[in-house]
Amino acid sequence: MESNEAGEVQIPVSKKKSWSELKNVVCELRRQLSGLSTMVPGSLAFRTLPDGRTRIYFLSTPANGWETTLLCADVPPLASHGHRLAWTPVIEANFQSLSSAGRFSREEQLLWERKRLATWGITSYELHRESGKLVFPAASSLFQCLDTGFSASIISGPLFPAELRMNSCGAKLNPQICPSNPDLVAYVCDCDIWVSHTLTGCSVRLTFAHKGGRNMADDPLSAGLPSYVMQEEFSRYQGYWWQPRTPDGVYRILYEEVDESDVKIFCFPSSNSNLGEIEEFRFPRAGTPNSQSNLKLVQFVLREGPQIVDVSTLELQYPLSVMFPWMEYLVRVGWTPNADYIWVQLLDRRQQRLELVLLSVDNFTEPPPNVYKLDTNLNPTTPVGQLIQVIYTQTCDIWINVNDLLYFFPPASGTGECKGEVKFLWASEETGYRHLYLITAHVPGVANGVGADSPDNLESEHDTLVSSTLHFVRSKNKLSFFLVWVWHQTGVFLQPRFGQKVALTAGDWEVLGRSLWVDSERQLVYFLGLRESPLEKHLYVVSLRRPGEVRLLTRPGYSYTVDFNKECTMCVAVYSNIQKLPACQVFRISHGDWTVEEVTLTPVAYLLEPSAPEGELFSPELYAHQISSGDLLYAMVFKPHNFQAGCKYPTVLNIYGGPEVQLVSNTFKGMRQLRMHMLAAQGYCVVAIDSRGSQHRGLNFESHLRGRMGTVELADQIEVLQWLAECLGYIDMSRVAIHGWSYGGYLSVMALAQHPDIFKLAIAGAPVTSWSLYDTGYTERYMDLPENNQHGYKNGSILNYVTQFPDDENRLLIIHGLIDENVHFFHTSQFISAMVKAGKPYQLQVYPNERHSLRHLDASKHYETTLLSFLQNHL
Fold first, then answer.
1. Is residue 670 a contact partner of residue 753, using CB atoms and an 8 Å limit?
2. 721 and 845 share a domain?
3. Residue 71 lies inside a defined structural domain of this protein
4. 172, 165 in Cβ contact below 8 A?
């Protein structure tokens, strides 16, 4: 032990270890901390079997396994509380090793990066509930099996999947089973959509957007595959959508065609080659052109054989970019329940205007004429009846956070729909917090898909709105007059026409934006929210008959994630808190009457019982502090495992600090926080703080960093850190390191430049160093376009703080994957070039075969060893 000038006892981490010893420490800590990893079921799906059982499918890692696989568990009709359901493998165990034998394709790797998938094995699957058909991607191909509904372990044993017979080359991605015919499976291969008949093996290419040439610059089109920005920044990974029903025998797939002609191409070392080859990748930097999207429809029929024939591609008569010239992003797409209409959500470039638009299928026709050749192509006999109607518009002076909470009520749903009305659930942050609304929109010819106005009535509606569309087009030219004629003739209503909006929830708390479940018969809406605490996710229910009366259904003191079956009669909840490992429980949902007070969740069985780790559990502690601005901030602290009262410990501030992330919550911190546990086990105090700008605290709280990223976050972090040091008494403020990845890496570097007196060391993983080098969707949402915020971009760039870095050696360590296609290695190379020019010291650790996340075990262990070595030698 050592004492400082104030007489306080300081604890050295331990006797310094060699690199070999630290490698062994990392391996041993990983083994010890593996007890923190519970096999929590994920990606749940429900299916009712003929004998009354409910089969729950899910992805997890079986005991003694290391790859994720597909499992199931059956809930008997009369299951009793406390019963633990047996996990049954759906897929034969040998399949895992066979599917993993091949190398993973570049397309698969990039999709895992976008989805932030941290597992190997089966990572997704498609289930056709009526037939039991299962399809999933693995090892660049697609596999299928049929679950007849019998108990797999008793009757026939696990299923061995069969590979779909396909004549397409390349990785097969994003399979979807046709809702009305499970024998048809569509998928994306080499940037185009294919469909396969799984019984006959007939496989047909449906779209021909991509040429498949070696030169990316000459091959900018793709079909059914969202752009990089759409996947990375808007979390939409699907680019095509089967029509839910096939009443006329014609199968239809709506799809997005993406044109990346104007998006700049960058080169990276190849991930699959040791020969020095490169990969090309399109990436729109802030202020540069994005890709362009349009919707198309491909249709076909089945003939004897069966054979897939009569394939034809239809296009919108007038592209979305013509009708909505302000549109930049096609953020969400889907079909209405009756399958006659398509809905789209359109977002502008600055992400402050969002419109929900309804399109009739009749808008898709043979490729339209060239609208610029007005004299030869104007056809006054174009039929009236196609509908393009804006049914909701949302604007915001800050930015719009796109969410997945949209539900169209089906016909005869008991919501009181009338002729010419569409009712839907919508979520908006217009009050500063995301809440649910019941919207009634007036749409000529539609009543939640039922009924239609006459063409005469429809045309009279057009006449009243033609003048209001003029501001969308350039006046006094042929295109303008032509478009006005088009809108008059075809039923385009660009002005929103919603009649009533009822707030279902309200208050200074947030409805979570991923899922909601609707019991249309009882007019009940189930959702997850944060009413009890920003640190706990809970399940709530609200009635459409009594808006505003929200009832909590889960137990305070825990945080939940929930999945429902389609009928809203059963749900599965995964719950934990900061001190208790996750458990997974099945509940039946019953009702005394139609009110929320009579909704009852009855425990049925466990999928995963509550348990305790094998060794001693070192859980972090949660703290709240009101900072000088009046805002309440939350923090968590991992005590060092060798903690002794009265001693001070070297401390690592684990930071993210940016938007869309919450580090501090009342959930169990397991393997995802492995490195925090690892540092605490080595004698460090580890602190994490959610400063203003973090997630789940409302739009105003999040917008604290708008236009000034990198300049305001650290003040909050330091204020809370200093309060914790004073309050707890064991944080050694003379030995504080800051460590983070991505945005956290960015702030770690910023911290050493702006506050070298506070932070002795900075370890920065994959740091952004200049926002002008990052992508459009993220950067422009929070920083505006560069041309509108030159001051903010300059102040937020690390490159402008190089001269402020300390001249002391061994205070800065930068870690970066060489083939990172998200935060390009160019960020780091620009930064170290500036550091060299300024004569500043730094250390750099490069991982040649890693992207933004370290996915290979050897790289992860090397990074952890490097981290421990740097800290023990210099903190």
1. no
2. yes
3. no
4. no
* Residue matched to tokens 């839907």: 424
Residue type, 398: I
pLDDT of res. 473: 36
DSSP state of 152: I
Q: How confident is the model at residue 374 (pLDDT cuts 50, 70, 90)?
A: very low
pLDDT digits (tens, 9 = 90+) for 406-431: 999 987 555 544 567 899 999 999 99
| Residue located via tokens 């749940």 | 44
| pLDDT value at residue 169 | 83
Say if 5 falls within a structural domain: no
Put residue 652 in one of left, alpha, beta given phi > 0 → left and psi -120 to 50 → alpha: beta
Task: For tokens 């009262």, name the residue.
Answer: 645
- Can you give the residue range of the structural domain that contains 747? 622-874
* Residue 573 burial (C-beta neighbours within 10 Å; 0-12, 13-18, 19+): buried
Enumerate the β-bridge partners of residue 436: 427
Considering the domain architecture, whether residues 593 and 627 belong to the same structural domain is answered as: no
**Interatomic CA distance for residues 621 and 724, integer angstroms:** 12
Catalytic residues: 742, 820, 852
Q: Please check whether residue 844 lies inside any domain of the structure.
A: yes
**Range scoring the smallest mean pLDDT among 28-42, 134-148, 380-394, 845-859:** 380-394
- Judge if 777 and 853 occupy the same domain: yes
pLDDT reported for residue 93 = 79
**Same domain, yes or no, for 784 and 834?**
yes
- Write down which residue in 564, 580, 611 finishes a domain: 611
pTM: 0.91
CB atoms within 10 A of CB 191: 22
Q: What is the mean pLDDT of residues 174-191?
A: 96
Per DSSP bridges, beta strands 388-395 and 492-493 are parallel
DSSP state of 216: G
